[in-house]
Amino acid sequence: MARYRPRAVLLLFLLLNLTACQTWQSVSLDAISPAQLIEEDQPDRVRVLMGGGTELELENPSVEGDQLVAPGVSMPLADILLLEVREFSMDRTVLLAEGVAAGVLVAAGAVVAALCRSSDGVGVY
User: Fold this and answer.
1) Is the pTM higher than 0.70?
2) Under a CB-based contact definition with an 8 Å cutoff, are residues 63 and 105 in contact?
3) Any long-range contacts for 58-64 (C-beta under 8 Å, 24+ apart)?
4) Does residue 10 lie in a domain region?
5) Do 62 and 36 share a structural domain?
6) Using one digit for the tens of pLDDT, what is the confidence trace for 42-67?
7) Residues 111, 84 share a domain
8) Structural domain span for residue 103
9) How many helices, marked H, and strands, marked E, lie in the chain?
């Protein structure tokens, strides 16, 4: 198990990095219709706010006639008040990179301090 631990940690950081680089972005329904956005961009996920205040996150949405369709859900396109898609966020990515770099520096400092304390004047091999 210990042999695979560095790989698991690396995969965890990669997963956190990928999720931190994404954020929900509102789509202006005046500039593009929900049907046009779904058909052209084919997003994996969308978040929809409907007239009654209902908010849904839909996976693999598609348009069939005048309906927005996802597995187990169908709704009229006319009822959509707000549509959001996940997009790359440079701000969040930079903050994550700075946080990871600070964490690495703190961990390296702690290791060096521990090694200096434990050596008691004897060289570390």
Assistant:
1) no
2) no
3) 62/38, 63/34, 63/35, 63/38, 63/39
4) no
5) yes
6) 888 899 998 888 898 999 999 999 99
7) no
8) 89-120
9) 3, 7
Torsion, Cα 108 110 115 118, to 10 degrees, reads: -170
Same domain for 79 and 95, yes or no, is no
Q: In what order do the strands lie in the sheet with 45-50?
A: 22-27, 80-88, 45-50, 55-59
- Tell me if 41 is assigned to some domain: yes
Which CATH number characterizes residue 65's domain? 2.30.30
Length of the chain: 125
Torsion of CA 8, 10, 15, 21, to 10 degrees: 170
The rounded distance, in Å, linking the Cα atoms of 120 and 125 is: 13
Q: Could you tell me the two tokens for 53?
A: 């205040």
